[in-house]
Amino acid sequence: MNSYSKKALNSLIESDEDYNDVFVLSGHINQSIVGSSIKIIENKLIELKFSKTVVSKAKLLGVELMENIFKHQSLGTNITPYFHIAITKKGLVMLSGNSISYNDYLVLHKKLNELDLLSKEEIKKRYIGVLTDGSISDKGNAGLGLLTIFNRSNNKPKHLLNKVSEDEYYFNMEIYLSSFN
Amino acid sequence: MENFIIKKTDKTPEVIFDFRKNLISISGICIPENPYDFFDPIFKELNHLKKSKSDILFEIYLEYFNTGASKCLLNIFLEVARVENEFPATTVNWIIDEGDTELKEAGEVFEEISKLKFNYKEISSN
User: Rounded to a whole number, what is the distance in Å from the CA of A15 to chain B's nearest CA?
Assistant: First the structure.
């Protein structure tokens, strides 16, 4: 684990004696790892007796978060990404982090600021708009991944962009899925 | 005409075009790394169905999917809705596990945008 992910996670863990890991992934992520991870997450959440709805939400959000990591992660960085699911005093949460380029930071910072100002209904409307009119490629999906995350989350995702250097930032997200099962 | 089948993998669903019944079935996990490459043959087969000018029934039962797949799925629904005179009465059976409101809502978004008739069928996993 790197210092940026430790900082983000420790602030959550230290404030919450109920923190319990459900799934922890750190390091390189590719599409095969996404599929395998989702299978493990599904089995664990079923074992913990979460509802079908929560399990589906976790799978759909997990795919987006992990795919966002491997599509947008900076190349040549030593700072590894992470993806966790944990139970906290708030309920079931997902946490992710990955380094991004300065150019990606500028785009992401702007998008996050815009989304933070929107209501749930406005986010859904924007999601439908981009789903209908946006285009996708192997480099990205016109911001649809980030919109999907905001649209599917129960509350607005928390996010943090930490500067690593002039060319690199570290992007952390915390997403609340559900209260306790 | 023989059925068109794409076998399922750990990242992509099974797809069956049953031309005798005008049925298109898509089931499984749908997280293709390159969604356009995966869905391109499906669009091509859809063009064959246009010649029949008959009702189409979709049966969709997905475990989960990524945004690329959701975009391509929506494009299929929009294409069918766009050429109403070639697909006069298309119905989508959106199949979900009992109690899964998350995937039901995903279907409702496709229904809202495409204006196709969606039936929501819950199946018990027990």
Answer: 30
Helix (H, G, I), strand (E, B) or coil at B14: strand
| Whole-angstrom distance, CA of residue A29 vs CA of residue B79 | 34
Q: What is the pTM of this model?
A: 0.91
Q: How many CB pairs under 8 A join A and B?
A: 75
Q: What is the ipTM of this complex?
A: 0.92
Low-confidence ranges of chain A (pLDDT < 70): 12-17, 134-142, 180-181
In angstroms, what CA-CA distances link B7 with B34, B38, B62? 17, 12, 14
Tell me the two tokens of residue A46. Answer: 């079923």
Q: Rounded to 5 degrees, what are φ and ψ at B40?
A: -55, -50
A33-42 long-range contacts, CB within 8 A, separation 24+:
A33/A66, A34/A62, A34/A63, A34/A66, A34/A67, A34/A70, A34/B31, A35/B10, A35/B11, A35/B29, A35/B31, A37/A62, A37/A66, A37/A83, A38/A62, A38/A63, A38/B64, A41/A85
Nearest chain B residue to A131 by CA: give it: B71
Q: Give the mean pLDDT of chain B.
A: 91
Which residues does A149 contact at the CB level (< 8 Å), separation at least 6? A61, A64, A65, A68, A157, A173, A175
Residue A134: partners with Cβ closer than 8 Å, 6 or more residues away: A141, A142, A143, A144, B71
Neighbour-count burial of B123, counting CB atoms closer than 10 A to its CB (0-12 exposed, 13-18 middle, 19+ buried): exposed
